[in-house]
Amino acid sequence: MKKSLLPARLDLAQSITGLVLAVFMAFHLIFDSSILLGAGAFAFVSGALECELFFGEKIPLITTAVVIVIFAIFIAHAGLAMRKFPQNAAQYRTMRSHMKEMRHGDTSLWWLQIWTGFAMFFLASVHLYIMMTQPQTIGPAGSAYRIVFEWKWPLYLVLTIAVVLHAAVGLYRLALKWGWFEGQNPNRRRKTLKKAVWIVTVVYLTMSLAALGAFIHIGLTGQDHFGNAVEGIAR
Ligand code: HEM
User: Fold this and answer.
1) 3-state helix, strand, coil in the chain (%, to 5)
2) 163 Cα: distance to centroid of ligand 1 (angstroms)
3) Atom 6 of ligand 1, nearest CA residue
4) How many angstroms separate the alpha carbon of residue 129 from the centre of ligand 1?
């Protein structure tokens, strides 16, 4: 019987969509964290992403279009990942007992990825839908208002932790799976890779959570942490 190429193709599609989303997130969290440089910096970045410099005014439809593309990749990635979820209670129990017996770090990472991915089905969908339908609200005042007075901070708190961990573990597993950085001493390489991934994870988590704090500060006080007034936070 001829072997089907479908499983390998689906695996490749999952890797590619995951890589695209991880690269997107690496930029997204840096742009988001421009709020740490003050309200003016975030206004400049969000304006530049909507081509304000080119058209002389923001074009929110650009954000809507980008979100539709990212949302589609996100849904494809999540759909492909469903193949990897334990399908019933027996499979779940087997997996848990293997994990306990083996105490293998990389197997626990896989488990972490499953759970953070599961959480993102819901959390990221809420965020993406709001960004797609209300792009005109993005800015220091509108974003701070949404985070504080529309109660998005708990969602962003959990989503930030989930997405950074998920992307970090995903990239680590991709690097191992496709043999990036392979060399003479694979064990040493794996340890170095793990260390590098952890450092990047801690940097991203610290930066993004500090950014969330900066938005909350603007929402509560009406000014950024440099003391610049932020107009337009209607309570
Ligand atoms: C093109 C698609 C996207 C756009 C336009 C977008 C836009 C934004 C904006 C403007 C903020 C600032 C807060 C606000 O205004 O509500 C934000 C925050 C955030 N976004 Fe996105 N986003 C996109 C995709 C995603 C995806 C796919 C994820 C994760 C799966 C994500 C995760 C987050 C998180 C965790 C925060 C809070 C960061 C923090 O803690 O400071 N975003 N996003």
Assistant:
1) 80, 0, 20
2) 10
3) 131
4) 11
Lookup result for tokens 């975030």: 42
- Report how far residue 163's alpha carbon sits from residue 156's, in angstroms, rounded to the nearest whole number: 10
pLDDT for 103 = 63
Half-sphere exposure for 153 (CA within 13 Å, toward CB)? 18
Averages of pLDDT over each 10 residues, the chain, 235 residues: 85 96 98 98 97 94 98 97 80 74 73 93 98 98 97 98 97 87 79 93 98 98 96 77
How many Å lie between the centroid of ligand 1 and the Cα of residue 81?
21
Residue listed under structure tokens 């970090």:
168
User: Which domains can be identified in the chain, with CATH numbers?
Assistant: 9-87+94-221 (1.20.1300.10)
Measured distance CA(106)–CA(97) in Å, rounded = 15
Q: Is 67's C-beta closer than 6 angstroms to any atom of ligand 1? A: yes
Measured CA to CA in angstroms, residue 203 lies from 37, 48, 54, 58, 162 at distances of: 16, 25, 33, 31, 15
Q: Within 13 A of 139's CA, how many CA atoms are on the CB side?
A: 19
DSSP result, 71-135: HHHHHHHHHHHGGGS--SHHHHHHHHHHHHHH--HHHHHHHHHHHHHHHHHHHHHHHHHHHHH-G
Closest CA to 127 of 197, 58, 70: 70
Structure confidence at residue 71 (pLDDT): 98
Residue 96's pLDDT is what? Answer: 74
All residues at 6 or more sequence positions from 13 whose CB lies less than 8 Å from its CB, including other chains = 76, 80
